[in-house]
Structures are given as C-alpha cells and as structure tokens.
Amino acid sequence: MAIRKLVNVADMSREWWDDLYSRCRDIIARPGVYADSCRGKILASMFYEPSTRTNFSFQAAAQRLGAGVFGFSDPVGTSASKGETLADTIRMTAAYSSTIVIRSPQEGSATASALYSEVPVINAGDGGHSHPTQTLTDLTTIAQKRGKIGNIRIGLCGDLKNGRTVHSLAEAMEMFEGVSFYLISPKELSFPDYVLDRMNQVGQKYEVSESLADVIPELDVLYMTRIQRERFKDAGEYRRLKDIYILTKKLLEGAKKDMQIMHPLPRVDEISTDVDTDPRAAYFEQARYGMLIRMALLLEFMHLPREVPPVTLSDPYAAAGECTNPACITLSDTYLPRLVSRSGSDRCGYCDKKVTSMLL
Ligand code: NCD
Q1: Is 242 a catalytic residue?
Q2: How do strand 344-348 and strand 340-341 relate by DSSP bridges?
Q3: In the chain, N or C terminus with fewer CB closer than 10 Å?
C-alpha cells in the first residue's frame, strides 16, 4: 500500500504500517545494507518552529541512507520574510528535492504544502494539531519494547489540549485491537473536541482522570507530555498549570514492574531526573527509534516518482463556512482552497476545528 504523503494519521493504514515497521526492523538488523540506498536523493528540511529530535533525526536518517539534506531551522533566512507564500516556497523546494519535511506553528501547513508539491510531504508537527512521524516513533517503541502493539492500556498525561503528539497517537491506535486509554489532564487541558468526537465515533475505549496517582497502577504504557508553554495565550494560566504532573520515583512505586514510560521529549519538569535510571524509562531509546523508523519512511518516499499535484478546487460543502482558528494556515494563506475535514463537514480540512457558517 503506497502512500505519497504523510501529513495526518489518516494517511496511514494498518497494512502500510506493517510494511513500514518490517522495513524498519530490517534496517535495525542490517544497517550496512541501507547505507547507499538513497544516494543521489535529497531531503528538504523546512523547520519554521524549534526542534531538536525531529529535525536531527530526519537529517541523520537521510544521511544514514546516503542522501543529502538542505533546509533551515529558522525561517528568518528564507523568502518567507519577504512575503513569499507557502505555496510558492513549496513549489520551489519541491523542484530541488526528493522529499520535503515541514514543521510549522500553523495548523494544516503540511496539508496545504502537499497541495503544491511534486514530491512527498511529511508533517513534522503543525502547531497544536498533529505530529504523525512522532506517532511512528511511538508505535515503533511500543512494538520493540512489548513485542506487539495491541492489548494495551495507555495513559496519556499532561497537556492533551495542545500536545500534537497525543492527538496523533490516539488516532493511530485505532489500527490495533484491545487498546484502552486513560486521559490524564486537568479539565482546561483535555483533548480538543475533534479528537474526542472521533474517538467516540469509532468506539475507542477511554477513561478520563485528573489524577496520575489514581490510574498509574492500571497502565502498561505511561505517555507523559510537556505543558506546551508556546501555545498558551495567558502566561499566568501556564504558570498555574505547568507543574501539575511530575512523575517521581515515589509515584512509580504504584506502577506495574514492566510499565513503559514514554515521552516525545523535550522534558521540562514533568519527569524528575531520578526516573531516568529506572528500567521502565523508555524515552531516550524512543528518540533513537524515531531516527530508525524515519529511515524506513524516507526509503519509501525518496524513491517515488515526481508527480504534478492535481489542481484542488474548493470543496462545495466547505464553502458554507470559514475557519476562525487563529492558528489555522487558511487565515494567513487566504488563497488556499477550502477543504472539509474527514471528521465532519462542519470542520476545517486543514486544522479540524469547527468552521463558522456564513449563513449565521
Ligand atoms: C514534540 C513536539 O514537537 O510536538 N517533540 C518532538 O517532536 N519530539 C513534543 C513537545 O514539543 O512537547
């Protein structure tokens, strides 16, 4: 099952994941075989927002396959600062490269980029919306540590509202049997309604809790997240919530002996450093799996033929509404066709937030 872009979890299927993961396992077993498998290919790395792991691991992945890399980690040096549109920047970048990876604070930016690119586009995080390659990292870690992904109780803890990694992970777990979630957050930082609506629609099992101590004994995986300071409008609100969950050695006493502690990183204070030596701490290994699964992804995408993207016309259903999410790409890039979300015809196809009907 070939795909041409990875901008949302919806682009993946179970069959595709199984193929990708088996390629990753072979890369882990026989890295030397792959050392030149993307020789002559080029990764374009466009980071409009800070990154350490995602940016470095994509660059390392490309270089370990023998590919070249160009790009930026700060858009100040690009023509975006002269007013160039994302569409034009993408057309140019695609002309010079074999695959594009993009991270941006604007939600839906990767979906928009894929409309104008002749080469595959990978979403490396679009604002507080989604982060599908972190999900590949997370699935690889779970599979490697537990031998399989299904039949598992996962606690997602922290900033479930703004944390894009947990939105994507929750959606991807739909592909596996026997998964139940514990959603651990204060009410103010609970999952956005489009994530919960989708979980309800497909019948994913979950319980909501504000207390990590209460649910930790139930968990096979505890997935901690950082409170996302950069997405808060009110600094006082951030300060009030930032230390709400701190995983300590003491708290771990109540957990299963084989529970895995995961975190997309960077960590701020939510996992105390004395947990790092606990055999259950999987977060540093997780970051290494990120590079390995991204090698498997690049190996697939870099060999795809160039393809002129089809002209995308506005969807007639979406014409009834405008997105008002201030972080959505459609607010700055007003030329973009209006698209409808997979999660409902009253939702924006870029950021999944409800659109405002122009009939009101
Ligand atoms: C995450 C991200 O950027 O969303 N980091 C990552 O990609 N590994 C998590 C975060 O920033 O909190």
Answers
A1: no
A2: antiparallel
A3: C
